[in-house]
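Bench notes, afternoon.
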Amino acid sequence: MGESQLTVRVVRKQVEADGICSFELADLGGAPLPPFSAGSHIDVHIPGGFTRQYSLCNHPDARHRYVIAVLHDAQSRGGSRAMHEVVQEGSTLEISTPRNHFPLEPGAPRHLLLAGGIGVTPMLCMAESLASDGHAFAMHYCARSRGRAAFIDHLGRAPYADRVQCHFDDEDPAQKLDIPALLGAASADAHLYVCGPKGFMDAVLETARRLGWAEDRLHYEFFAASVDTTGGAFEVKLASSGKTIAVPAEQTVAQALANAGVEVPVSCGQGICGTCLVRVLEGEPDHRDLYLSPEEQARNDQFTPCCSRARSRTLVLDL
């Protein structure tokens, strides 16, 4: 997969909210873990053969541990269930070193963090980092109810608690997040970060674009996609060798390439993480990912072979 693997021990497992557990991971010998920046995630290899991406929640300076939080998803294909039911304190896990596809904008004078549900995980790390570095930020956390909001006590006790507002679906409508009002009142130099369920993220990003926010001020990370990777058959051509590989209707490009002996690194398999991104030299992709922005997709010069397909008969790939 390109990054090195680590073996870590679960030193703490704690219920953070209804259906959400946190896991504190540490090096087996107590050594510092590899450094990371706010917004980073790790791949976790879960018992049962699953690999899932989880955002790191703790402050990047706390190198003795990585903290992740996992929602027990009713739609789970097995990964989150195994984390909740199989993985216990004392268990060892194989993980990747951290990667960051959702970094803070280093030069931004103000940061606006919007979290929905379990999407709070990268935002917690961002808030910790921004607060300790003295940067201006505000955080809004939306959840169905207080009982389903992870880390709410931690946020309430944090030194930056006055910059965090929580909004609950089942409480007084007056306290619900008014997305157009919030984004409309934000200063023109603010950068927006959003993570959460797709419906929540779509509402935030569509509102921001309608209000004229420039794309380079919008930062987002999707998780838990259910992406349709099927479609008509087509072929891909490797620019380096001219070799043509057929992609049947029921197979992804990544699978077809692997069967032909061409390995492309794949992590999430759902078009979320960007690990597998490949340059497209000719042809028109049928984008199914959540990683590229609409502008990046429209350029049709790269695509995610783990899930995206082709509108044209052939795609020529920079492989």
